[in-house]
Amino acid sequence: MASTAREAVDAHMKAINELNSDAMINSQHFPFVHLWPDGRADFVENSGDFLPLNKDSDLGTEWHHTVLESAEEITQGREAVSFRIAFSRRRADDSVLGQYEAVWIATKNGKDWGIQFRHGALEL
To answer: pTM for the full model?
Structure first.
């Protein structure tokens, strides 16, 4: 787990890039909510209910990695920090597939920070 909210953002993005389910789970707090741009919501009660990313259906067949362009704090409290995330999805040759924004909320559980809510990705 991360010792700061920003470390939680970085760990979560790294886990996405690696398509590493264990790292994804370790970078999140549960229950976890992902609100998609079309209004669908994924609710994961606990780590045992976590379904790994499906690269082709969730990220597209050309996706190779994601670059975190910025993570701007938009609200900050002792136990939760909201971030406006800007990122680009890239091909293996680093060419841009698309640019996106999202809102991620990191929460503190005891001494550790993890991502507990994501809204996005909204294509620019």
So the answer is: 0.92
